[in-house]
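Hi R.,

As promised on Friday, here is the backbone we talked about, encoded as structure tokens. Could you run it through your design pipeline when you get a chance and send me back a sequence?
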């Protein structure tokens, strides 16, 4: 019998900066001796292999002495670790049409199946100590995307959205609904893109959240041909589409009307501000991360008594003036709010404790800056390169902030405008 690799499977996991392939599992037609394995036995171009061992199955992670299944642990720091492709450059026509501005608003991504060519570089041994000759190759054809695969896909008219339904769903009880809207880089017609560019849509699926307060999560697909919002505070029809998607989920599932929330990063933050402004009696609260919007609309939300927590890096040149300008308007009318700066370079556990203290203070309207550029976490394992991106790389890791949002309930608010 000729020895061969039957099939290969990639496994990806969510990270603050996006979904990354962290494992490849190979299935041989014979059992392999674990003692014959080492990282230099295999090659995957563009990826660094950290560890190799035998395991029980595609799902297992426990090391075995002998098995048909061989697991390759990959370095998530590799440039080619991401499942989503880089955002494409705009065409000349697009450059002319938009004069080189806001290119990410108008150029979408496409996502293909993750397919890794794997080469066995050295001889291996079977459980009978026979040689499995070097040179075997396989292209991975199976793909598992942790957390992302737990979402279902639905359509609202011509638009698509992702929906996570709690594992414990029981139509006899009511569940909260979290609407997550991504940043401009999430533009693309493939549903994966909306789910794979950070923790925003998938952090709500973590055990600590779902065990204590299971919730639905709705993550719209931002179509390549569509428009959403821009830096001139022009809002396009997609905002109302997001609202209608929430209404549809309400109609089809057992949703608590007192606990419908919106959150988003950058462009999605803009949408969340606008949704709170347009529908003050629908959404219970918003978590707005690393974005800016019309200061008059933000101030109007505060004047009405709506619950919004706005978080960004102090050196985020879009969010900073928006926060400060809207706070000036609140000061003019003596509207109370919470404002605080925290050190974003602290260990996550300590940072989470500080945000927990902020969450406990009874202010419906909150502003929080990560001091200076501290959210970049320079020199640390999770270092970020952008004062803009770092806001959401960090915020959606803080369980105290997620729990604050889920603790809010819809309340009577006015229709006042500033």
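Update: got your reply. Pasting your designed sequence below so it's all in one thread:
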């Amino acid at each position: 019998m000729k020895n061969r690799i039957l099939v290969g499977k990639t496994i990806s996991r969510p990270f603050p900066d996006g979904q990354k392939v962290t494992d490849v599992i190979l299935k041989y037609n014979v059992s392999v001796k674990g003692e014959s394995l080492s990282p230099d036995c295999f090659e995957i171009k563009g990826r660094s292999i950290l560890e190799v061992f035998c395991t029980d199955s595609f799902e297992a992670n426990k090391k075995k002495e002998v098995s048909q299944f061989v697991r390759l642990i990959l370095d998530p720091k590799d440039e080619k670790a991401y499942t989503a492709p880089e955002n494409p450059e705009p065409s000349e026509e697009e450059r002319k049409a938009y004069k080189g501005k806001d290119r990410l608003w108008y150029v979408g991504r496409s996502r293909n199946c993750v397919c890794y060519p794997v080469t066995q570089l050295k001889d291996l041994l079977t459980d009978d100590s026979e040689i499995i000759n070097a040179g075997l190759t396989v292209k991975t054809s199976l793909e598992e995307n942790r957390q992302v695969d737990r979402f279902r896909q639905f359509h609202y008219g011509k638009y698509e959205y992702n929906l996570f339904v709690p594992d414990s769903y029981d139509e006899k009880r009511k569940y909260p609904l979290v609407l997550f809207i991504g940043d401009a880089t999430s533009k693309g017609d493939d549903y994966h893109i909306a789910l794979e560019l950070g923790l925003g849509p998938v952090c709500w699926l973590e055990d600590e959240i779902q065990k204590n307060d299971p919730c639905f999560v709705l993550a719209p697909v931002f179509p390549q041909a569509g428009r959403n919002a821009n830096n001139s505070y022009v809002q396009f029809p997609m905002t109302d589409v997001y609202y209608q998607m929430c209404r549809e989920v309400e109609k089809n599932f057992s949703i608590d009307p007192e606990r419908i929330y919106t959150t988003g990063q950058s462009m999605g933050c803009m949408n969340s501000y606008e949704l709170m402004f347009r529908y003050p009696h629908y959404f219970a609260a918003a978590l707005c991360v690393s974005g800016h919007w019309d200061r008059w609309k933000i101030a109007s939300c505060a004047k009405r008594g709506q619950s919004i927590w706005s978080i960004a890096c102090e050196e985020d040149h879009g969010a900073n003036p928006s926060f400060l300008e809207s706070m000036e308007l609140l000061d003019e009318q003596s509207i109370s709010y919470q404002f605080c700066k925290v050190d974003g370079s602290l260990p996550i556990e300590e940072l989470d404790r500080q945000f927990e203290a902020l969450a406990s203070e009874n202010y419906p309207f909150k502003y929080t800056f990560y001091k200076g550029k501290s959210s970049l976490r320079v020199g640390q394992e999770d270092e970020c390169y952008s004062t803009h991106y770092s806001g959401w790389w960090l915020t959606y890791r803080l369980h105290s902030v997620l729990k604050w949002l889920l603790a809010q309930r819809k309340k009577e608010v006015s229709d006042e405008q500033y």
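One thing I noticed while checking it: The two ends are 79 Å apart (CA to CA).

Thanks again,
M.
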